[in-house]
Design brief:
0% strand
């Protein structure tokens, strides 16, 4: 199980770990309570620097997640445009080949819509396998026309089919492109240190524990949001294939392929 695919678990583990670091800092303070004003001032400088660095790291990581999320939306739109364009270009083929190509593109479009729905690993494996089979069938169909009719029109159809196949590869690449583990590790380490210093600097921990726990809670929520946006298939923030579904309804209006119905196929 990839932990970062489950933002809720990320939140729970983060909150417990950061709350523990806060408590740990307080416990160390109890053992070394005597502090002069200079050491207290130095602690304040270190706390400020650490909290600032934590804020910058969280902001930078959040920006990375947003960039990937936006790019996945752009690629979904590109897929819909490529499939729709090739569906129209199929009219340039012979009547038999045109009908066959359009039927394959319609089936391929269904699989691409299903890809975006929340699927089990077994179902997703079947979808990817079926997608690969349809890609091979589509390429063979247009390539057979190139062998018998080598002209600019067929070249245009083949170019469009190449765009269809490439767009799926680009989409898959960005679904695999996640925030590096090193960035997560650095962010968690700095968050742990920041909570430790907050606990260490708290003089009346028992009286203000409720207020102090707001800090690990807020940081954990930040981790949850970053993990949610960065996880294409997990969490609550997911990319809906609106362009692909609009294309499907345009090509075959009587078919309802809303996300709920698509996930049941």
């Amino acid at each position: 199980m990839h932990l970062l695919n489950h933002p809720g678990i990320v939140f729970g583990i983060s909150f417990v770990a950061l709350a523990f670091s806060l408590w740990l800092g307080h416990r160390i303070l109890n053992r070394n309570r005597p502090r002069d004003s200079e050491s207290t001032q130095d602690l304040g400088v270190v706390q400020t620097a650490t909290l600032t660095l934590l804020g910058l790291i969280i902001g930078f990581t959040f920006s990375m997640a947003i960039e990937r999320y936006d790019q996945r939306k752009v690629l979904e739109e590109a897929e819909a445009n490529a499939i729709g364009t090739e569906y129209l270009r199929a009219d340039l083929l012979s009547s038999k080949s045109s009908a066959r190509t359009k039927d394959l593109l319609s089936q391929y479009l269904d699989q691409r819509i299903l890809f975006y729905a929340k699927q089990s690993p077994e179902k997703l494996k079947d979808i990817n396998q079926r997608t690969g089979e349809l890609q091979n069938a589509l390429w063979i169909e247009v390539a057979s026309n190139a062998h018998t009719q080598a002209n600019p029109i067929i070249a245009l159809v083949i170019s469009g089919m190449n765009d269809v196949l490439n767009s799926q590869g680009y989409t898959q690449a960005y679904w695999w492109n996640r925030i590096p583990s090193a960035a997560w590790g650095l962010m968690v380490l700095i968050a742990f240190c920041a909570n430790f210093l907050v606990g260490y600097g708290a003089r009346n921990f028992n009286k203000s524990v409720g207020v102090l726990m707001i800090f690990p809670l807020v940081v954990s929520i930040s981790f949850f949001l970053i993990a949610d946006i960065d996880s294409p298939r997990g969490g609550v923030i997911r990319i809906e294939p609106k362009n692909l579904m609009t294309l499907k309804n345009t090509l075959n209006p009587q078919v309802d392929l809303s996300p709920s119905s698509a996930s049941n196929h």
